[in-house]
Amino acid sequence: MTRKISYLLLPLLLLLCSCDLQKDIEVDLPSYAPQLVVECYLEPGQPYRLTVLESSSYFETPQPVVVDNAEAYITHNGKKIQLPYKPTYDENSGRLYTHVSEAVMNGKTGDIYGLEVTDDKGRKVTGYTTILPEIPIDTIEWKFNEKEEAYLLTSFQDDPNTADYYRYFVHQDSLNTDSDQNFTSSDNATNGKRISFGSGYDYKRGDVVILTLFHIEKQYFDFLNSTANARNANGNPFAQPAQIKSSVQGGIGIFTNLAYDREVVIIK
Amino acid sequence: MRFPPFLLPLLFVLLYAVPGFAQTYAVKGFINSAFTGEPLVGATVSVPALQAGSFTDERGAYTLQLPAGRHILQVSYIGYQPISQAIRINKSSGIINLVMQPVSSQLQEVEVDADALRQKLNDTRMSVEKLSSREAKLLPALFGEIDLIKTLQLKPGVQSGGEGSSGLYVRGGGPDQNLVLLDGAVIYNPSHLFGFFSVFNPDAVKSVELFKGGFPAQFGGRLSSVLDVGLNEGNNESIHTSGGLGLISSRLTVEGPIVKNKANFIVSGRRTYVDVFTRQINKWSEGKEDYNPIPDYYFYDLNGKFTYKLGDNDQLYLSGYYGRDFFTFNNNGFNFGFNWGNTMAALRWRHKYSSRLYANTTLSATSYQYTIQNQFDVFSLHLTSSIKDYSLKTDYDLFVDGGHSIKFGAMATYHNFTVGRLNSSGDSLSIQSGSGYKAAEFGAYASDDYQVSARLSLNYGLRLSGFGNSGKVYMGLEPRASAKYNLSETTSIKGSFASMMQYIHLVSNSGASLPTDVWYPSTRYVKPQRSQQVAMGFSKLFGNGRFLLTNEVYYKWMHRQIDFRNGANLFVNDSLENEFLFGKGRSYGNEVYLEKTQGRTTGWIGYTLSWTDRKFDVEDDVEDINEGNWFPARYDRRHDLSVVVLHKLSKRLNLTAAFVYSTGDASSLPVARFAFQDVEGKDAAVVPIYTKRNDFRMAAYHRLDLGAVLKLRPKHGEADLTFSVYNAYNRRNPYFVYFEQRKDDADERILGFQAKQVSLFPVVPSITYNFKF
What we know:
The structure holds two protein chains of two kinds. Chain A is 12% helix and 46% strand.
């Protein structure tokens, strides 16, 4: 009987699968006034590096618009440093910067930095970031199943006195490959506990795995989630449209600092 | 609340159109089925010469106010032979009980006599849509799965949630604003398979009635509609079995007497079997590299009803529903299970104190819950949300000389909410979160259906409702009124007003009916939703009584409407209230309905012109929806047309067609984008920027469905084959639109962006075999 039913269903499924249910359409979008888009991550021991671009109407030229007249300043402890316009491509990281300083950032936990970007159209973007401490990864474990595949478990201790936010990356061999895992997490349900991030049975003996645990600001957590939600809303019929929660005022973007622990392990 | 000028004529009718009185006497009785012995709910009882008429209530009872003299009493009911009987009224009230003979069996085509339309013309009630299971079974359906709720979407003023969805959006209200009752008990999530099928098995259901406005005072607790679903009662004479084999599911019903003419039962079951097929594919593909198993999915539901006659004046009804959806997925060490469903049991005691006073007392328990479980090695996760209710209600019907049919009663419900209860455990970490609420809801009401004269009838009532949760108590007064006046033998005008309160809220930020949507009580911070609706209508019978044209205008104000902050986490969140935003809504429109219920060709044309908007004021500097301005609801569809035709080609063959057209959904599309480079270790991405809410219109939706029911001639019992073709001309209706990146194949460079429209169902033919013996 069940086989008969399967035969009945087969043509139906084939029909559904064989139909091309997508098509190109023309959409008229309302006019849009471009905004400044700023990305700046402070990292102790590194120069101040900043990317200033412009947002654009969806169907305009796909290449990002660089704002070459933008002036950028970092403020810290009453000092104001101008970051010169100096488009730079970092081949190691694959990142493009529009403004790079000579000076190196050497802030300590709790230090507050400000950012100010202006351009000749009178647009102005400002933001602040507070340097966070690294949270060390204390254990990396793996466990094999009978097929000789292993899952990974990365553990660390959450601080019970603060509301903490994390971002977690897992890469194989190099940071330039697609990440196996990339997610953000808060300690809302796990405050003060030892937290573990796991994986599926994705690894075998000899794999080189790079694990990165970022300790991030709430404004960075919100920005990352809002960009993920906005991307998800484009193509998911069940999702609500999401607005970008920028950490900067007067434009779009993120100004924050990177405090992370990165470990490289070989699965044995 | 400003009173719209176009409704002034309604006030005029209500206030001034009271004609002279004529002495009338109450004629009462019960209408039962000769076949099953069960009461016939919604049968029309009338004296056409006097333009007087009424419908039987849920006990099959009716009341008419008639002057003394000889009259012809007519009774009609879908699928039964009409009765025409001479009666004499001798300056006193009288009781006339009647039994009706079915036209034929369940598989017979619908036969409706012409007076059904006349009764509708003369009914005090307005904004009511009624549908029998027999009627729905003739119409074409997606995958051949007959669904009464989806058939109701073909009526004016009722919108679907989208392609294939069984959600009801009534006069601008959301699917969470429908009070769904199954034999008097609430069903909280009336859908299977993410909203594609409703939980109501057409074999178990006798009929459904949908109130879009002019709500009777005995109903309360939701803003926008009351969907009153009645289960079939078992056959009183002999055991019968019926069922069907379809593409998606099979059904089986057994019914019969336990003690003849005293106790009977009916049990119906239904189960899908796509999982049988997908399991087989998974088995064939086991061990193949890169093969991802197809998740396992099925649903089933069981309905039962037991009826016991205690004596001449007492009857007991025990109704039950149990349904579950199961979704399981096992891959790469993960064992993921997700199940959800409703459970309901209701015990009703009907007692007749005298020929003037009846009471129905119902004790019920209902619950909806979903559970997600995930197991991986030593790690486990268990997440559940639920609502469980225990409810007691009693409803009295009192008939008073002078044309008064009075209803009064009270209800009390104990709600138990579990919101996002999470248990997670593993190596060293265990997490518990979630919250629970216990709340009480009550209501008391009284109403009078007053037949002032042969031309004028009024129905007015008041409902007092209340809700208490954690020391916070809310109360509401909900006045209700409706009136009907016959301008002539073939023309009537009607008007109604209804005020409604809703104390519990559905937490859902998706456009679909997802099983993870949870119910949340009113609290100190989350205040109850409120609405007011006014409607006025005009009905005209023409073509020698074969056609009824009805036009209704309505305006609805909705307050304390709920939406959620952008990117709100509604799934596991102990501070859920922080995600709520409160606003208001309005909906207004005109509904035209032309129906024909007599002859070989029957059917209807419904057209709705309507507007539905929402507005959420900016509550703080951070959050707003659409900058605090009015915006259209996703299901704000300016034009909505449905044409349904049923044609009896021969005694063995019925042909049906249904055409629907509606303005495209309002949706939000990104207007702009920016490049997000991100940190080392992550690829750059294009991030869309959304500005206005629901500012874009998708292409219009239209579809033609065709159906045929061919009666077979089996040796025993009866059988038929039902053919359906969904979306016959294979229209690519928009389901959603998104923007795609076009990339260079060689170097992954972005070349540009293209808008894409995705459709859900192409033409879908199906066949179902039904039997009864």
